[in-house]
Amino acid sequence: MVNQLNDIRDDEFRVIGQHRTLPASTLSAPERKRKVGWVALILVALLGGAIWFFWPKGPKPPEGVFDPIPPKPAALVVKPKALGSVVDSLQPAFAEKLDTTINDVVLSLYIPHNTAVPVLTVGAPNKETREAVMAFQAADIRADNREILGSFVLKGKLIARGTPKAGYCAIIDGKVSVGVAESTSLFEEAMEKDGYFFRQFSLVKNGVIEENAQIKNKTMRKALCDRNGQIFVAVSETDESMHDFASALVDLGVDNAIYLVGSHSAFGWYRNEAGEQIYFGADQHRQSYRNENYILW
Which of 66, 167, 228, 265 could form a disulfide with 80 if both were Cys (CB 3.0 to 4.6 A apart)? Predict the structure, then answer.
């Protein structure tokens, strides 16, 4: 006979005060363990979520002037530092080259550092000079008389006059202005203050494309750009139309941009941070092009 006080089966419960047994739950022991485990897991998840939700978080950082311009390009972009606007006499002058691709347009950006403002020169500059870190051909030359096309002021001296192109660059009192206007007082001011001025095709005005429908070919394009007051040169490493090139500059965040002499043969150079002088274009300065001109940093 089973001793009702001491002997019970593993699937029975003892009830204090009564000498009887109760039937076990319909769940088996492994099933009860699994049920308890799931309940514990859910409780832990709920507790973790509550802690994350109520945990104090830091303040949202304020938007800055150098926040990336959405939604593209992801690879660039111009670094948020004073690009050529501040001269540090303790550091060597050099040009930084950044590469990026925007809308399938492959761009190289040439950014001067620790340099004074650029100047214009007429005639092929001495490429061996160590003072110059970057040089690009600026205004176009007329095919008929080989004079400079459009208004051109060289250190206060009027070299050429005309407004066939709305884009302009003025360098006056240590400031570079890049813009688009058929008439600007900066032209006369450049002559009054021994400044520099030249005209070129317009590409971007106040962040909007300036169409140049009369130019339909594709070639290597170059542009003088102003982005938030930072002046640099953009070059397409692929042959592009004026529209596609200007569109890429807009997506780059450029405020104003004018054309520089393009094509694969246009000569120029830059000197990198290691002091290496790197040339591009055809190194042939034809003496007949006495008005070949450059913007020189």
Answer: 66
The pLDDT tens digits for 182-240 are 999 999 999 999 999 999 999 999 999 999 877 889 999 999 999 999 999 999 999 99
Radius of gyration in angstroms for the set of CA atoms belonging to the chain, rounded to a whole number: 36
Residues 6+ apart with CB under 8 A from 270: 95, 97, 110, 133, 134, 135, 277, 278
Number of H helices, E strands in the chain: 3, 19
pTM given for the model: 0.70
H/E run at residue 232? strand 230-236
How confident is the model over 37-86, as pLDDT tens digits? 666 667 766 766 666 555 555 444 333 332 333 333 333 444 433 334 44
3 state SS of 249? helix
Torsion of CA 293, 291, 141, 266, to 10 degrees: -50
